[in-house]
Amino acid sequence: MRPTVHDIAAAAGVSLATVDRVLNLRPGVRSATREKVEQAIERIGYIRDVAAANLAKSRVYPFTFILPSGDNSFMRGLETEIRAAMRRSAVERTAISLVTVPPFDVEALERALDDARATRPAGLAVVAVDSPIVAAAVGRLHRDGIPAITLVSDLSVSTRDHFAGIDNSAAGRTAGSLMGRFLGTRPGPVVVLAGSMLVRDHRDRLAGFRAVLEADFPGRTILPVLEGHDDPAEAERLVTGAFVGHPDIAGIYSLGAGNRGLIAALKMRRTEAPVCVIAHELTAHTRSALKDGLIDAVLNQDAGHEVRSAIRVLKAKADGQAVLSAQERIRIDIFLKDNLPFDDAAPAPEGDDI
Amino acid sequence: MRPTVHDIAAAAGVSLATVDRVLNLRPGVRSATREKVEQAIERIGYIRDVAAANLAKSRVYPFTFILPSGDNSFMRGLETEIRAAMRRSAVERTAISLVTVPPFDVEALERALDDARATRPAGLAVVAVDSPIVAAAVGRLHRDGIPAITLVSDLSVSTRDHFAGIDNSAAGRTAGSLMGRFLGTRPGPVVVLAGSMLVRDHRDRLAGFRAVLEADFPGRTILPVLEGHDDPAEAERLVTGAFVGHPDIAGIYSLGAGNRGLIAALKMRRTEAPVCVIAHELTAHTRSALKDGLIDAVLNQDAGHEVRSAIRVLKAKADGQAVLSAQERIRIDIFLKDNLPFDDAAPAPEGDDI
DNA sequence: CTGTTAGCGCATTCAA
DNA sequence: TTGAATGCGCTAACAG
């Protein structure tokens, strides 16, 4: 059997309570005693049984998740995953609050962060808009000792404890590399459809995409970036306009949301010349466009993994534990029509094991 | 607070022991009593606290992992991950035994399975060679009530409880699709380098690759498959021979191991004509070849994820619990030189958080 | 400053 | 066939 608190107590010649004080860094122990106990811990190779500790504490973790409202499919998928986690709350000892704020609205986000802080959760996860105001609100959480992590989109400079999301520069580079290779020698410029330069993930993707095209595929022109604010209607208008202005477009990289509009524009297009399209996030829309050959590749981040990872990391931070970094790395999934996972065009039945 | 066994006992008007007997399907309860308790459980919505149960039982999970010996980089990486899991044993309440057997050796694998069974582990994971003999040995585990899962390579027909690995057909299709698109209009045949048709993952990849090339890229010839038995020297010889016999080769799909040999052959080649190379498994060798442009894409399965997933699933099976299927789906990672994760050319320092 | 004691939710003797 | 009592490893009152 591995050593327990009793063994420490015996080895150090003190009581359980004192051992507990040392283990949990509680005050009220003479430094000589503390040292004695610490040496005993070291000597017998004690490892705390977290499950037993949580049992004794009847620990529950109140967490708050903040994400953008609106009909962005990816964000709604993220919300679905959070709700799935809420259903697991009893088993996982969590109590999750879900808050939504208008997209790209810095002040609303700041208010939401401050309101959440007032409830003193054990941790908070937020899809960040990259602004000093938001960073300051996150800083206040940090000041109050509340672990805060960014989800999907990070802050450039902040005191957040962790980022649960993909490497967006790498995603942009990957898109660039695929675009360049898929196009081969086919002539024509490429156009980038972004959501907003206010969010860091979009900026990073753009930079990565640009860098690879310029370095590895010189001669391929990139048209001025279209900013569609993740809005399908606006995206459709912008893309349709681009086709009119540049009938020779060879490729489109959609690095934000609003892909419904992009797909509509692609369907409306009355030309035979093929366009290579790379988009982000596997949703019902991009999935069917991929199958139909309207989209060539989709880069995806697994919202379920992100939510589960966020919860694991928040728990670890709340307990001052280390995280398994390899387990928490969110992958950039690349989907072609050939490796689409199980079909969830039909929504999963209620209460299943997702 | 969520209901506990005490609440059940009170609601049913019986003692804790009786509740426990019903909960754990133990004998010695009158069916009338049993029914009373079951109704109480249903009525108050009881959910068992697995952590508390494990604490009371001082539960440890003895698991056995069986994998091929030899210098196959991927398998050694898998072993590294298993050893990392062994180091986490104290925390995760596991006791993992690691057994290696010569690759592609059906009889040795059968013996290892039977030997492992004799130790009566709580679960077993095996990198399977696809043979009825192996399937029968797995069947004996099943008969004895020992959960058994296949790892990396599955059995075609068996009573294994789970497969922890990628969808190899999809992987092959993906390779085919990438190959076809990367090559574009470049002429020339493609060659497939496999390990052995005795393992199911290799067969599945080949079938998927073939299917896509034939359907979506007709006119692209596939040369007869080279079988290198995952041996670098043999692979090098075969690939070099192919280059001599077919100087116009446009692409190579290496769907097994032995990539060191492939890379050596590529380096030796004295032609300027580009060859599109797609391989499996990110190792030190394929990583550097990817960086150098010798390999265009690497399809990878995350060995760490597979091992962690195997352990989670085995625990769940041992406890008769459900698994989060979304969490256990092993992804097909696609790496280009542009989205390589952290560099582990230098082995990670001992005892780090991997 | 330190120790005693009683749980947390569940499993498992041992009696009845 | 049923129940009372004890303990898993740890925390948290409450005394001393």
Automatic annotation (TrEMBL), chains A, B:
Keywords: DNA-binding, Transcription, Transcription regulation
Gene3D superfamilies on file: 3.40.50.2300, lambda repressor-like DNA-binding domains
Entries under PROSITE patterns matching the protein: HTH_LACI_1, HTH_LACI_2
Domain HTH lacI-type: 3-57
Classification via SMART domains: HTH_LACI
The protein's name in its UniProt record: LacI family transcriptional regulator
Lineage per the UniProt record: Bacteria, Pseudomonadati, Pseudomonadota, Alphaproteobacteria, Hyphomicrobiales
